[in-house]
Amino acid sequence: MKALTIGLTALLLAAPAAAMASDKVIHLSFENGVAAAQKAGQIDGSVKFYLAGNGPHGKVVNDNVTINRKTNAFGKSDEETCNHVLATDLIYLQSEAKQAGANAVTEIVSNYNDTEYRDGQNYECHKGFLMSGVALKAKLVKLP
């Protein structure tokens, strides 16, 4: 019984350290993440998404939309958990765009802990032992 108590105590004390030790930054294809969310029916395709530097120009409806969602990462692959949390961000951005009368989300940059990551192909995901997060900053735009 004493060995079991000691083992459980050690496990509980080590868990926070394990969560911190496995925190890593991952860069994944934004296009693949959007396609997966659309294929799964999470977004409907009525709003287009463009990373910074890739999008067309239109009338800016809102120039400062931010989203920072997290999801359970335990036991999931990097791509699975990161694309899942990206999809939740996209659902929110699609909803915000529709409410604002916009049909595109442009100038999307990763913005984890207010540190921008700009890439024309990839988004940034932070994966820990228990949680993954994707933070985005963007503009809502009405395209002709």
Automatic annotation (TrEMBL):
Residues 1-21 form the signal peptide. Keywords: Signal. This is Excinuclease. It comes from Dyella agri.
